[in-house]
Known about the structure:
The chain contains 13 helices and no strands. It is mainly α.
Amino acid sequence: DGDNILEKEVLPPIHAYGNRTECRNPQELESIRQDRDALHMEGLIVRERILGADNIDVSHPIIYRGAVYADNMEFEQCIKLWLHALHLRQKVCISTKTQCSEEDQCKINKQIYNLIHLDPRTREGFTLLHLAVNSNTPVDDFHTNDVCSFPNALVTKLLLDCGAEVNAVDNEGNSALHIIVQYNRPISDFLTLHSIIISLVEAGAHTDMTNKQNKTPLDKSTTGVSEILLKTQMKMSLKCLAARAVRANDINYQDQIPRTLEEFVGFH
């Protein structure tokens, strides 16, 4: 409706964008048709207005455009854009060292508890606990790897404290313990490997649990370090020894023992 135009709220001029303001009508847009720099800046301005300065995706095109200027030896303009991108990132930066109150921690734990009991799974059957101990778990932003990467001992402990099932298995019958013993950085990240194995075992992980290939975590261990750590934690109970004997001798136990024990014998 040409008689009832809704005016958009444009951003104030930003130094990094050459103090340009967003085009308000077709004529202004037409005037920069042949100006490649102006068109690129127009795109950055529109993106920042629509997504908002606090959106973490806003800074990526700004950083990229700055890199293009750097490649063309236009370092002053590059620095302007990168400083602007830094400023936007700092505005949404959340300190990982912030101490939350006991009340806030309880609220967080309750939400995590509710999430765990929804039992979300990946297509491979991974639970949240599997993802927390898996070095292949992707992080959605390469900048985030500096503050959050996997396997993660603190996330593992938090999930266990909030009720995660320590012996839950994926589609291949692997528990979280099967996954962590395959971690390929046992020396450079020893503390993480050690902390996670300890947390899992203390939470009741069965060190003799077998997957669909009839492999225990010890069988799946790919390094001597994880093998040693696991052996120091192995305290075989009488019921585990009995279950393994039943499976090893192919004794029929279906409908012969309480159903609550059938699953227990089954994963040995």
